[in-house]
Amino acid sequence: MTYWGYHLIFTLPLLTALLVWNRDRLRRAHWVCMAIVCAIAFIFTTPWDNYAVWLGIWGFGDNVSLGYPAAGLATSPTNPDGLTWLGHIPFEEYSFFLIESIMVCLLAIRFLPKSKV
């Protein structure tokens, strides 16, 4: 299974379900807070993931990532097909950071008391 296939089967349907489940609760403040949480997750996770892959602690199998050729970013030495990655990890991993952060925020919003505003 490709990483993109994983997102299509597991993470994106769950994200969609959580968005639908929270549609009556989401306010502008929630979207702002989710953006802040996503930025923090992205900023703090990116260096550590790149460093771990660079050290060989973990990595991505052959032909599991689509990469992100349209971005014109650096090619990873761990990617033999020459697909474009950002640093040492593929586009789908960055998507995972954001999708998971949004899902956690949506679960928190769902179980917080409903806003009266």
TrEMBL record:
Protein's pathway: Carotenoid biosynthesis
Molecular function as annotated in GO: intramolecular lyase activity; lycopene beta cyclase activity
Main location: membrane
Membrane topology per record: Multi-pass membrane protein
One GO BP annotation of this record: carotenoid biosynthetic process
Keyword Isomerase: yes
Localization in the cell: Membrane
Keyword Transport in record: no
Membrane spanning stretches: 6-22, 29-48, 94-112
Coiled coil region boundaries: none
Keyword entries, A-Z: Carotenoid biosynthesis, Isomerase, Membrane, Transmembrane, Transmembrane helix
CC per GO annotation: membrane
Protein name listed in UniProt: Lycopene cyclase domain-containing protein
Species whose genome carries this gene: Cerasicoccus arenae
